[in-house]
Structures are given as C-alpha cells and as structure tokens.
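User: quick one
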Amino acid sequence: MLGRSANAIFWMFRYLERAENLARLIDTGFRMALTRDHLTAEEEWRSVIETAGMRMGYDRQNGTYTGIQVWNYILRDRENPNSIRSLIASVRNNARSARNSITSEVWEAVNGSYLQLNDLLSRPVTQGGIADAIATVKRESTLVRGAMDGSMLRNDIYNFARIGSFVERADNTARILDVKYYVLLPSLSYVGSSLDNAQWETILRSLGAERAYRWLNAGQLSARGIADFLVLDQRFPRSLRFCYAKIRSNLHNLALQYGHEVNAHAVMRNAELKLQDKDIDTIIDIGLHEFLSDFIACNNDISNAVATDYRFVD
Amino acid sequence: MRMKASDTFDEMVDGDSGVRPAYDGYRAWFDEQDPRALHRKHREAEAFFRKTGITFNVYGQEEAEERLIPFDPVPRIITAQEWRRLSKGIEQRVRALNAFLHDLYHRQEIIRAGRVPEWLLKDNPAFLPHMSGFTPPGGVYTHITGIDLVRTGTNDFHVLEDNARTPSGVSYMLENRETMMAMFPELFTRVKVAPVSNYPRRLARSLAACAPPACQGRPVVAVLTPGIYNSAYYEHAFLADQMGAELVEAGDLRVVDGRVQMRTTLGFTPVDVLYRRVDDDFLDPLTFRADSMLGVPGIMDVYRAGGITIANAPGTGIADDKALYSFMPEIVEFYTGEKPLLPNVETFRCMEPDALKYVLDNIADLVVKEVHGSGGYGMLIGPTSSKREIARFTEKLKANPKNYIAQPTLALSTVPILTRRGLAPRHVDLRPFVLMSPNGIEITPGGLTRVALKQGSLVVNSSQGGGTKDSWVLEE
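Assistant: Done. Structure below.
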C-alpha cells in the first residue's frame, strides 16, 4: 500500500480515538461539576482543559472556566485543532484521502458520523444538549470501529489502523494519569477523605474504567489499586500494558505480511521492557510522574518509528 | 432564454399525439406509479448520495462546501437504432481526433495541405512543442474522450464540444444507473436497458493495453489526482477503486532509476500507466509550470524515454480548443476520407473580420465562448443576458477577438424531470464516454445526461446549477 495511505489510516484512527477520549473527559467534568460547589466546579473544569492539553489555546480566548465555555471549546471551537469538531473533520479528510484503502462500510460510517456531528456541533451546546452530544460522539466512534471490525481484511491497512488507535489510547491514558498523578501518591493522599475518593473516581471515569474497577475490586478504592489497574492490568482495554500488547501484536502482523521486521519492532521491544517485570510499587518508587513522562516519550518514539520505517512521508 | 414549446424537440412527448417510441415502456410504468412514492424515493436517493459522499467541490467558494449534483429520477432514453447511428459518428470523430493529434505533433500534413491554418497552433498554450516527434505508447493520444452532444430534432444530433483533456463525469453515469436500479428494480425488468457497469473494467483493460516499452509483466495502473480538495476527487477515488488501481497524488511519485515510481510502505515501485486527472501545465514542474505542486519532476523525460504511459497524452488538450472545434468537419474528412457523420454546431471565428462583424451585429441572438474556456465559465448567452452584460462582453470581444467564437442559440431538446407538479420538460445534453486503445474504440452505451433544472435554462453545467439523469440506451 502507499505510504501516504498508511499515514492517513494511522492518523484517521488516532484522531477518532482522541475524539472519543475527549468526549469521555467532558462527561467526567460534567458529572463532577454537578456534585460540587461553584469554586470546586471551576477547578474541575480547569483540570479538564489541562488534561486535554488545551490550556494555552483556551486561555487565549477565555478568562474563566465555566462548564459551558469549556465543553464548547473542546467540542466545537473551530480554532482549536483538537476540538472534537476539528478532529472529526480530520478523521473524514484522512478517510477520504485513503478512500481506496477502506471499505464502503467504513467510509459510510465515517461520513455519516461527520455529517451528524457537524450538524450537532454547528450550534453552541447547552446544558440540556451536552449529554446527547457526548453520547453521539461515543456512538459514532463505536460505529466506525464496528464497521472496521466487520468489513476489513486483516492486512497491513488494518494493522496500521490498530497501531494508530492504540498508540493514541496509550498516550491518552498516560496523560490523564499524569495530570492527576499527585492524587495517587501515597504521601499526599489521605485515604478515606471524600475529596480524594472523588478525584480517584474522576480518573477512573475519564478512562471509562469505573465500573470495571469496582467490579474487580469489590468497590474498594485505593490509590495503589487504581494506578496498578490503569498501568499494568492485562484485561482492561485502556491500560498501558494492554495497549502495548496490542501494538506489539499488530507490528508483529506487519512483519509477517511484509516478511521482515523494521526498526520500529526494536523500538517497541525496548519500550515494552520498561513495563515488564515491574510492579506498581516499583513504579511508584521510581516516581509515577517520571515513569509516565518516560512512557509518553517512548510511545511517541514508537509512533515516529512506524511513520519512518513504513514511509508515511517522503 | 425561454424556448417556445413549438421550437423545442421534446424527447418523450411527441406533440399532442403522445409518447415517442423510446419512452413507451417507461411511460406505461410511470403512469402506474404513486407520485408520492416517486418523490419519497427521490429524497432517499439524495440522502444516499450525501451519505456515500458523491459530492463535488465548487471552485472559488470560501467554505469548500461539498455539494450534491442534483439527480433527477426520470431517465433519458435513446433507442438502439438511434444509438447505433450516434456511436458510428462518435467513433469516426474520435479516430479523426487521434489521427489529427499524431499529425499535429509530427509532419503537420493537414497544415501543409492548407486544410487548417497554422495560427491554430501558434501561441496556443495547449499545443506542447515537447510532444513533437514523439509517439505515445500504442499510438494513442485520446485514451478517454467525452463528446458533448446536443439534440434539436428526431435525427438531429450535433457535437457541441470535444473533451479530450481530462473529461469528467463518468462516475455519475455509473452511480446514476446504480441508484436507478436500487430505487426502481422492477422498472429494469420491464424495460431492457444496455448495461454501463463494465466501464471501469474496460477502462482498466484499455489503459493496460497501452503499457510503455519499459513495462515488465502485468501493467501497474495508477490514477493521479490533485487530492481531496479537487472538485472531481470523488470520481478519481471511485474510478481507481473500481479499476483496482492505486490512487496517487504528486507526493507519492518520484523518478527513481529512470522510472516513475510510487512510494509504498515497502519502498518505491514503478507505475506503468498513469491515468492523470491533472492538467498538462501541472504535470511536470521541470518542463511546464515550475510552481506546480501537483506534478512529478522529470516525468516528461521518463515518458519520452518509454518509461511510462500518460493518459491522456500530454498535448491532447488542444482538441478541446473551440477555435479548433470549428475545423472539425475538415479534420474528420482529411483523416477518414469520409463526410462527418455527426455535424458541428455552426461556429463563427471572431478572429475573422467578416465573422466578427456578424457576431457583433447579432450578439443578442448568439452564444459567445472563450476558445480556451470550459465548464460554462467565460461565456455569454445573448438571449438571456441583460443589455449591460452584452455591452460589457462586447468590449472584451472587441479587445481580443481571436479569443472568442460564437454559435447560434440552439433549441436544445428537452426531457421531462420530476417536479412537485409532475413531469416538466427541461433542456439536456449528452456526454458519451469513449475509450481508445491499440485494440480499438469502445463506447459505453449512453453516457452522462446533464439537465438544466431551471425552466427554460440552457445551461446544464453542474457548476452552474445543472443536474444529471440516468441515460438509457434500449436493447433490441
């Protein structure tokens, strides 16, 4: 396949994943703010912007952090290249550019999502409309994934799509953890305080992990348990370890199809070594923040190695 | 301009006496339909087009808005007998065009013989000196041609334009048929219509048959598109997909080891036949426009060395020139030794003083076009223009007469479209698509019917609010 098409497929799925994660982030902020006093709510929305990595762009336009400002900025601001509206347009542009690498089912799911979201986000989203907007983003992204799963050949195209999805997901999980890492530090957390519980819940909710975590841990919330779950659990589909297992397997499939490995495979192995044989106590000893910063950098290296080795650009 | 009903040939309705034979079967079916159901199907079809992304971008619009080309669900129908006659004329014309292009870039016998004047080539930007003395692989210049036809009476078809540069619209021909079959499957069991769906396969075969000397094994065909923002991107992607060819952009291609190669995830791999949807000017920044981002530096050298086939051949665009068009009767006769089977529309070359005088005296009744223009831009339709528009255009015409030709306003035939109040006649044209390879010429039955949706309007271009119809050639 063309390097440019591989690039388009890769970024199409990165942006799709990013849009879905942002929707989840807004959802979390919204729920938190509902149960808080005014000041804490504002703090919560500031944290959402921070986690989304949009602080600079947001501050240029706004002086305060109200819910309606924040979610409209993330959902539909045209000048924000990472707003969900911009991302969905980028997903579609990449799908159009790689139109001949995807099935009609995938294309129609992407195009349908774009048409629906573009219409939904053409007007400011009110408090009454936010739940619907978030649900629509999640549903549309699920539709695209489903069309992909049900109609695509398991070849290089599919593997580039999956690598894009999981590189982005690992990055998002690590960033969400990193913004809130201090909440999970034993020295700072006073176990049992309602504030910390709520903060932990925020982290879990932002990653769609709340129910899974409760179910596995019989409702026991602990900082260590949460960090362990989000970094090292092999079953949870947004944990760092899970994402790496997927990327490794998709890279392996590429090597099988193409008949040889490339540098990206070595980069991947190195990155994975840092997750292997570590338990969460060791990671907390190293420093969770340091660990996550290193992880984000390594993850980025994988993405760059894939782009270079498979000739995404000239 | 409003045509009086009596001036205009309607392809379905025959005066007061009823329906013409071509539409017998369709009209019987139509009369049994519930109009509300027809309208509902029509709306569904538009929603389907939108969902599948069959859209085009309009140049010069800020928002790069993607628009649908309106689709009308009433087919345009041609009998087998009419088509036989038409296709003979089309084939003759395309053969002549191809022979003319070869001559133009070699000995120029037709100019020596005094049948066309030399000024046609001089200062004509579409004439490419780089092509002189070179014969494209298989001797084919016009791999794909679209011949625009208009009808004015039972047996009166005229050629309005030749499109040999990069004719577009074939995806609409194919999608319109798919849509009609999906909307009204029972109709196709009652009326036997010649299929069009094998066009992409024929195109792939036809292009592969023109592989260059350097080709080893099965020819690799690629479609070169300017990219996703081009107005016809949908068509480029559609054709590549249907042919099983790669859809490439300039950035994917590079000259490596004397071949034009595309960058794949595994390295560079040669392209044998490039179906380019990029104009000559942009094809090679080393040879033509240096600022082109849409072309491949060095591709012309590879081409001339037999390393790649470019379809259509560079320099073919001169066939679209409207001054040249006016010489087509002479050109057809010179190369085929026969009278043209399909007549031109009478054309006045404004560079000739007598013609210019006539045009200026009668401008309110004429259509005046730029010789290099296309897409319905840069033209004046006298009868529908205001005095001011005519005055302004007259100034431009006087300032540069050789840039213009003029034609009488034709009473284009009408075919009904579906409106809220039932069937209503609208003016149409027809663009059949012609494939040429060393193995011969293939014409897909029918083509693209463009229809002016506004009552009385003669402008069918999609960029100016025209729509399309499915075009049927009946089977015997």
